[in-house]
Design a protein that fits this description.
With 104 residues, the protein is an all-alpha fold. Helix content is 42%, strand content 0%. It has three helices and no strands. The chain has helices at 19-32, 46-54, 81-101. The longest helix has 21 residues, at 81-101. The chain is flat, with a radius of gyration of 16 Å.
Length: 104
């Protein structure tokens, strides 16, 4: 099998420490009952660099609903319903907390 590169993409590293990052960390802690952890991955989503260049002051947070047994992008992928509920709660808490930091 031969693979061909269609188009290379640049890596992206999100900034951490801003008010949105702090709000998502607090929301995840509350929703999951333990502190948020981060990890680096080898890939990137090219749109992140476009968004960062277009909106340089924005904090970019990408969220997905998955858990260790989800088999993301596999033919038999699925997600535990409790993970979906926890992420929905996380997003609601994040919006509430972030709005509070913005005075709204």
């Amino acid at each position: 099998m031969k693979a061909e590169i269609e188009a290379p993409g640049s890596g992206f590293q999100a900034r951490t420490g801003g008010p949105a990052y702090q709000a998502i960390a607090a929301a995840m802690h509350e929703a999951y009952g333990r502190p948020m952890v981060t990890l680096g991955e080898g890939g990137s989503i090219p749109l992140c660099n476009v968004l960062a260049d277009t909106y340089p002051d924005a904090e970019l947070i990408l969220m997905g609903v998955e858990e260790p047994l989800a088999l993301i992008h596999a033919p038999n992928e699925s997600v535990d319903p409790t993970e979906i509920a926890a992420m929905a709660l996380t997003e609601a808490l994040f919006l509430q907390r972030y709005a509070a930091t913005r005075g709204r």
